[in-house]
Design brief:
16 strands; 474 residues; globular; 6 helices; Porin; single chain
Length: 474
């Protein structure tokens, strides 16, 4: 039956895209925005803040602000270090082809607690390639997005003692080695201004809809805001959602932004592998609703959804977004632990602006929260409750800076605690993170990050980590 279901899923995807090609033209090409979920398209103008005529004189002199074309301007005002490549880059963008390279370096240390006190250096290279089919001369509504990553060096995730890694970016594509891999390759076809279908290898962190500083820089979670996994991504879905997953689905759009999406994922982690043996283990169904509001004339986003997987798991099985303590020991000591069929979770996330720049709505800061509950077996996380403040700086002359302060509480399940109790007792994990992201230029940002956490492993003392992150947008 599973093989038959897999064939139905694959056939449905083929039919969806065949229908898209046969559907023909519609009045206007859909261009999803920067905060989109699975139909998100990264374009050359995203992550920029163009000066407006009403901005006070001297803004560029006190803090360079990139123009609408991120490749234009001098070395200290453009949004990308390498500029326009003598006009070639903007010419390619006008033909629907864009390429970005982001280099992010981390130097962090465990200064107290944890499994080990040490300072580590490592980094990421993120390569983003995007195709707009209409501009390329193919047909309207066609988009192709690729995300490749290089991870190198070392990080704190193996020594901080946390079940939710303190540096989510360095956990992928493979936390154990230096590696380059394609973690996202997604094809999207908009059938109208209000409906689109998509399929491919989907980077689920890229698609996470909640942003605390919208419209700035890379727009990639973990690279310019919070770093702790619990404050970047809702860990309630960690049991069922891979980091890079094969998937297909549809999106309902409003004002060219996704309002509702439904995705059928393969449960297998594919960050460093291809798309072979699709849906052999079952399927993960993910409905997701995003409501964008204007409460008291201030933008907000409210996100509700859930996951249901038909695959088989144990609570101590590997999970892409978690570091299960002493995983090998758990497996060795509990070989007879039965596999549970199916796993579910529900979540609610929100961001509500409190302060908004009158001249630039994207420049705002506000409150955010992430909440969730799961089955507790096989999900090792029973509930999640996170919150804080974050967004763009209000400091005069520092329009591109961002900041955040957040608290997270990760309630581990009784089943997971019982399995771990004989040799590595577990408790709920909670902590605080703060960061300030200083824009040296529009293409170069330096972040200070500080975290204090009570690790899930009882015999590990309170962990304090601190460090710097330097990001350059090429």
């Amino acid at each position: 039956m599973r093989a038959d279901f897999r064939q139905v899923v694959i056939a449905s995807v083929v039919l969806l895209f065949s229908g898209a090609l046969a559907f023909g033209q519609y009045p206007q090409a859909v261009t999803p925005g920067p905060n989109s979920v699975p139909v998100a398209v990264e374009g050359p103008s995203q992550g920029t803040t163009a000066p407006t005529p009403s901005e006070p004189a001297g803004t560029v002199a006190t803090e360079p602000v990139p123009p609408a074309n991120p490749y234009a301007g001098d070395l200290f005002s453009r949004a990308r270090l390498t500029g326009d490549w003598w006009g070639a880059r903007s010419a390619l963008a006008n033909r629907g082809l864009t390429f970005d390279l982001f280099a992010t370096q981390f130097y962090q240390g465990v200064t107290a607690g944890g499994n080990e006190r040490a300072w580590e250096y490592g980094g990421k290279l993120d390569y983003l390639f995007n195709v707009d089919g209409q501009k390329l001369g193919l047909w309207k509504g066609l988009f192709l997005n690729m995300h490749a990553e290089t991870r190198y060096g070392t990080d704190l995730n193996g020594i901080d003692g946390l079940i939710a890694p303190s540096n989510i970016a360095m956990n992928f594509p493979d936390a154990t080695t230096s590696i380059t891999s394609i973690t996202g390759l997604k094809l999207t076809q908009a059938l109208s201004e209000n409906f689109a279908v998509y399929a491919g290898k989907i980077n689920t962190l890229d698609e996470y809809p909640l942003r605390y500083s919208p419209g700035l820089g890379t727009n990639k979670p973990g690279l310019e805001g919070f770093q702790n996994t619990s404050l970047v991504f809702n860990p309630i879905v960690a049991r069922t959602i891979p980091y890079a997953a094969a998937g297909a689905g549809f999106a309902v759009l409003k004002d060219l932004e996704p309002v509702f999406t439904f995705t059928v994922f393969d449960p297998e982690e594919r960050a460093t592998s291809g798309l072979q043996n699709l849906y052999d283990r079952g399927v993960v169904l993910v409905p997701d609703l995003v409501l964008r509001t204007k409460f008291l004339d201030r933008p907000g986003a409210y996100n509700f959804g859930g996951t249901y997987s038909t695959a088989k798991y144990r609570s101590f099985d590997p999970a892409a977004y978690l570091n299960i303590p002493f995983l090998r020991s758990l497996v060795a000591r509990n070989p007879a632990t039965p596999l549970e069929t199916g796993s579910w979770s529900v979540y609610a996330n929100f961001y509500q602006s409190i302060w908004v720049d009158e001249l630039d709505e994207k420049r705002n800061w506000g409150l955010f929260g992430q909440f969730g509950i799961s089955d507790g077996n096989p999900n090792p996380v029973r509930f999640v409750a996170n919150g804080g403040i974050g967004g763009r700086s209000m400091i005069p002359g520092r329009k591109l800076d961002t900041f955040g302060v957040g608290y997270y509480y990760l309630g581990l399940s009784d089943n997971f605690k019982a399995l771990a109790r004989p040799f590595t007792p577990q408790r709920d994990e909670h902590g605080v993170e703060l960061f300030y992201n200083y824009a040296i230029t529009p293409w170069c940002r330096l972040t200070y990050d500080f975290q204090v956490a009570t690790p899930s492993t009882i015999n590990v003392n309170t962990t304090i980590t601190t460090g710097l992150r330097l990001q350059i947008l090429f």
